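As a warm-up, study this chain.
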Amino acid sequence: MNDHARTLRRQLIDDPVAFAVVVAGPSGVGKTSMCQGVLRADSGVQRCVTTTTRPQRAGEVDGISRHFVTGAEFEAMQKRGDFVERAEVYGHLYGATFASVAKALCGGQVMLMDVDVQGVANWQEVLKDRCVTVFVLPPSVEVLAERLAARQTEGAATFDRRMENARFELSQAKNSDYIVVNDNLENAVADLQAIIRAERRRTQRINF
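Now compare it with the structure written out below.
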């Protein structure tokens, strides 16, 4: 555990009700849309602004949508131990800094974020009992393939690679605290909200 992690753990002692909800699942399952739905509905839930080397997209605002950096800048941050977790996804680097996590959790807030499946273990290791993991499943692999195909943002080779990864990632669902099947986005958002409400009522998160 590095100095950043120790500082975050000390902060969490002072904020006993703060916790993170980490939403994982294969690409195209709808986890980002689910998180956006909850963030719009609950002002007590904050998102962690992640850092990435991927190009900034139309409508995105640096520092609000994500922190956009060069590959060299990302590598320097990694060497300093700035990231809770980092991952390379289809040629681009993504990471969540300890500073961004601390900001999202400040004042006993709930931090909500969607992550790549490979990053879940890092969050569990750093946040321990303050980390609630939710795995999002598609109704079926066939539906997931249809959703990815509907994006029309990638070639056949990338699509095939995403589907191959998805089949492995789906096998990791059993390692999560909760599972939500995203058959209907409105219902899936409601399920995620219910999980957050329940976790807020855990005995160890209540200030007596």
